[in-house]
Amino acid sequence: MWVYERERDKMVFRCASLSSSSCSRRRPRSVADAASHLLRNSNTTFVPGFYKIFDEILVNAADNKVRDPSMSEIRVTIDAAAHTISVKNDGRGIPIEIHSKENIWVPELIFGNLLTSSNYDDDEEKTTGGRNGYGAKLANIYSEQFVVETVSKEKKYRQVFQNNMSVKGKPKVTDNKRGEKEYTLIEFKPDLARFSMADAGFDDDILALLHKRVWDMAGILKKVKVYLDGKLLRCKDFKTYVDKFISGVNEVAAGGAGGKKKAGAKKDDGAVSTAAQALLVVGSTEPAKPTVVYETYGDRWEIAFAVSDGQFSQVSYCNGIATTKGGTHVAYIADQIVHGLVDLVKKKNKAVAVKPFQIKSHLTVFVNCLVNNPSFDSQTKENMTLSAKKFGSKCELSEDFLKKGASPRPPLPPRRRRRRQAGLG
Q1: Residue 32: which of 87, 76, 68 has the closest Cα?
Q2: What is the pLDDT of residues 60-79, one digit of tens each?
Q3: How far apart are CA 294 and CA 222, in angstroms?
Q4: Burial (CB count <10 Å: 0-12, 13-18, 19+), residue 289
């Protein structure tokens, strides 16, 4: 028992380093607007550690798609009043058996045993988001109650942990006599006091952040229907997700969905530089929906890019993990886009001097990829650090893909563009 408590204390310390502290932070984050369901950027107040334990359980569910391609749905329920969260996925359940070496039920081994993990082998090539087995256990440790339920073709398993995993209920294992479809369900009630959230609870900022993360899964998981609070999120693929994200960001920039126009901005101050306009389709003189250039490369890479507001930005996912700070996978793609477009614009219009930084500063890049055994610079997994040569696959962007983002003609001067947009010729 002393060893167990010591290891639990180590895990608590690990979670403290993961969240930096139990204090809330106010940071620019992508969230889901409750009214419009658009995805937008907003200054959001949240506790990183709380957000991460939710994310670990969600990524665990998404990982099952890698293990079992027949998995077809994820259902997430967030009860703001009861302060409970449940994540359920179909597909092959967790093996309901006693582990041959550890002499413990496998579900308990995965979610409630600190001294072991089923996912430590760094030599095995994996494209799952969870690798070291800590994430789900941290969620258990930082919950008042944590329930594991899984169904196989033959058996059903249910176990309840309480008081930050200090109280382990006896596993209830029964025969699957009714022939229930296989699934795994995790339901937990976070210990909000440990995150200094006892008073605020699941406030609007937290809900917007969690809802957006569920929308992520709807967009990045192929052939998986994602439900949030019983409602199907209609986002059929990554391209649809990117379009939804771009639409939300632009609506906020225009003052919609609770957003405000940037102070001091002129009606048309040539925000997209001459060099970028010479390059990108969205630098057109016609007011139109921004062009998103999208392509799939094999079964591991989905890439898109569009024009930003004058500052480089990225939205990226690696093995289902939201890499909000980017990383080597983003640099790998962004560098190809920038240098490829610079070469294209030089070929089409030698009179325009374009430098890589000018192009990059007007790009928003989207990446959804699977890589072998990704590494990160911290427990929050916001920045992926694995060397590109170890990705396990290549994504070499074609010239045809880049041409989709190249403008066929030089841009008009700002004054003439304003006249054209006003219908004055």
Answers
A1: 76
A2: 999 999 889 999 999 999 99
A3: 16
A4: exposed
